[in-house]
Amino acid sequence: MTDFTIASFNVKNLIGPDREYYRYQSYTPEEYAWKTDWLADQLLTMDADIVGFQEIFEEEALTAVIEEADARGAALNAAAIPDASRRYHRKAIFRKLAYRTYEDASLAFAANAADAGVPGERRPGVAILSRRGFAEDPEVIQDLETPLTIPFSPLRGLEGSDSGHFTLRRLSRPILKARIPVGGHVVTVFNCHLKSKLGEYIPPAGAAFAPEQDLTRYDPLGRVMGSLRAATRRMAEAWVLRREILAELDAGHPVIALGDLNDGEHAVSSEIVSGEVPFRNYAWMLRHDAQHRADRYSETEARRITEDVERVRLHSAEKLFVRKSLRDMVYTTSFGGTFESIDQIYLSRHFHPDYGNRIGEMAYFSVLNDHLTDGSHPEAPYNKLASDHGQIIAHMRLTQD
User: Fold this and answer.
1) DSSP-derived secondary structure for 23-78
2) Does residue 174 lie in a domain region?
3) 295 located within any domain
4) Whole-number Cα distances in Å, 82 to 88, 89, 114
5) Which residue from 15, 134, 169, 212 could staple onto 147, CB 3.0 to 4.6 Å apart?
6) What is the CATH number of the domain that holds 259?
7) 169 with 181: CB under 8 angstroms?
């Protein structure tokens, strides 16, 4: 058996000191030191074999965090693990608790194609850190070779009319795809950060900002149009990710997709990523080409349809954990008193406990979220300086090596 851990970590705007990433936003050297200190501690606590990072502006800043975590891990090991001079017969207990260095790990960073390095107009990328290396060079998906065009069909009675379309040429942030050897298998890992819920507003020609951004002249209809644009873009990006996932599943590869989806598990964008939930019994369903009211799918067709749907589904590691624990205790973000999970780890059925041909399953799921507040806590500004996301870790065990 082979054990490994895989985690998602939105670090919240990691960049060096005195570098303006968004307009008028930067870290003083003291704030940067505070942030690096906190991130290194979190990474040390996670001790995950594979980590997908989001909101990375500079690879060098991430490398510094990893090196600091390693230095602290080495000090911790030296203090906690008995050396050869101590005749303690349960040293194996301490070895299991030992921090494993990232010194020989592989790091892939995907810079944002929209990041030109202009102060105040920076755009974040993503990264994957792997103690198990990469089976091949990771792939970055952001600029679409063939733009995604989403046509809208005319409503009944308006056939032949132009109902419009939406075209996506570039993802707001890159998707990083890596094939990682684990035991005797190669697992395809996708790390993503889908478009946020922040509204998209379009400044008129020659204007410095969009009218909807002027809150002294609040425009409620214009504001929700910005939310509509953001949601449409997020769902389109989810479709692009789903297309890549399906290509891997069709090739027979186990898949783990993780990251900041910026939506809850049951949002449309998240369901696009994970795939459809099969109908309980398709033999009850009226056929698509029904000729009469009793024209339904056969039992054989129903089984085949169910298998076609199940084969390409992804399953939330969080929900598999809740099923194990019988308690729903997971959240990864909070805002305005609402605590929810918008960071996810999705597993293909290769890791589902109910699948007969699984290669492994999740043994445990953990989340580091004690630092999160809804903004009302006195220490909230400092916690936000750390990260406004919890970190999630899936503890996996391969049963077929």
Assistant:
1) TTB---HHHHHHHHHHHHHHHHHH--SEEEEEEES-HHHHHHHHHHHHHHHHHHHH
2) yes
3) no
4) 7, 10, 50
5) 169
6) 3.60.10.10
7) no
Phi, psi of 285, rounded to the nearest 5 degrees: -90, 140
- Virtual torsion, Cα 42, 44, 50, 54, nearest 10 deg: 30
pTM across the whole model: 0.90
Half-sphere exposure of 178 (CA within 13 A, CB side): 27
* Residue 387 phi, psi (nearest 5): -160, 145
For 292-302, what is each residue's pLDDT tens digit?
999 999 999 99
Query: What is the DSSP code (8-state) at residue 121?
Result: B
pLDDT digits (tens, 9 = 90+) for 294-353: 999 999 999 999 999 999 999 998 888 877 665 556 666 665 556 667 788 999 999 999
pLDDT of residue 157: 86
- Residue 162's pLDDT band, with cuts at 50, 70 and 90, is confident
Helix H, strand E, coil C: the string for 258-303 is: EEECCCCCCCHHHHHHHCCCCCCCHHHCECCCCCCCCCECCHHHHH
User: How crowded is residue 288: how many other Cβ atoms within 10 Å of its Cβ?
Assistant: 7
Domain count, the chain: 1
| Residue 189 to residue 241: CA distance in whole angstroms | 11
* Closest by CA position to 112, among listed 185, 57, 32: 57
* 224 membership: H or E segment, kind and range: helix 220-250
Q: How many CA atoms lie within 13 A of 371 on its CB side?
A: 19
Residue 213 has a CB neighbour count (10 Å cut-off) of: 16
- Residue 156, SS3? coil
Range 161-186 burial, b when 16+ CB lie within 10 A, else e = eeeeeeebeebbbbbbbbbbebbebe
362 close to 368: Cβ distance less than 8 angstroms: no
- What range does the domain containing 51 cover? 2-275+312-398
Distance CA 179, CA 187 (A): 6
Report the C-alpha gap between 226 and 90 in whole angstroms: 60
